[in-house]
Amino acid sequence: MRIDIISAVPELLESPLSHSIVGRAVKKGIVEIHVHNLRKYGIGPRHNVDDYSYGGDAGMVLMVEPVWRMIEELKAEREYDEVIYLSPDGELLNQSISNELSLKGNIILLCGHYKGIDHRIREHLITREISIGDYVVSGGEIPAALLADSIVRLLPGALTDETSALSDSFQDGLLSAPVYTRPAEFNGWKVPEVLLSGNPKLIRAWQDEQALERTKLLRPELFKKF
What per-residue confidence (pLDDT) applies to 134? Predict the structure, then answer.
């Protein structure tokens, strides 16, 4: 899989994509992640990528030409399954979307910045818009890193134990059961006896029960859908 990320502030993406599961997946050749500096196609001697918005609203807007030229350059080299804009207007990211995108071959993630992007980009270049929540952050870099992480960890070989992702929260529509590790008792706080029983059938039944109870208590809207 290949993920190309277009950003006006590519430095913001260096650390999240270079360490832990994502970084190891890149080193192992499981995924290619390329971050592109939008200022490569900036306008004028200062390589500007933003300008004031028509209508006089406050805030700068990413211009259409630099984004168009960058996407055209990438598309000239390969076909892309999706060109995704990280936007508060988009469909709310969930596990199902991450699962779906993990099956793609090549995707582009476009990071907005400042006030947003020229709407013509959204009308003519973007195939999908995704939001990480009903709030606004300073740019699309953190959402892009988050989306990339949620995709990459699902790729075969990215996790040491590939079955681990199958038990994550939301994979079956529920929150996951509580998890514990050694020691079995600390400060008088004990690990549930069933987890020490060595009986896979009893453990699984306990985990299923806990998942249902926790989802009902903490995320009743998910429980209702389930």
Answer: 93
Residue among 51, 53, 43, 38 at smallest CA distance from 110 = 38
Domains by residue range for the chain, with CATH: 2-152 (3.40.1280.10), 169-225 (1.10.1270.20)
| Chain centre to alpha carbon of residue 122 | 19
> Tell me, what DSSP letter sits at residue 155?
S
Q: What is the pTM of this model?
A: 0.88
Residue with structure tokens 């299923």?
A: 208
Instruction: Give the model confidence (pLDDT) of 42-101 as tens digits.
Output: 999 999 999 999 987 888 999 999 999 999 999 999 999 999 999 999 999 999 999 999
Q: How far are the Cα atoms of 10, 12, 49, 140, 153 from residue 72, in angstroms, in the given order?
A: 19, 24, 16, 20, 29
Cβ-count burial 126-151 (b if 16+ within 10 Å, e if not): beeebbbeeeeeebbbbbbbbbbbbb
pLDDT of 58 reads 81
**Closest to 174 in 3D by CA, of 124, 223, 220, 126:** 223
Output b/e per residue, 69-108; b: 16+ Cβ within 10 A.
Answer: ebbeebeeeeebebbbbbbbebeebebebbeebbeeebbb
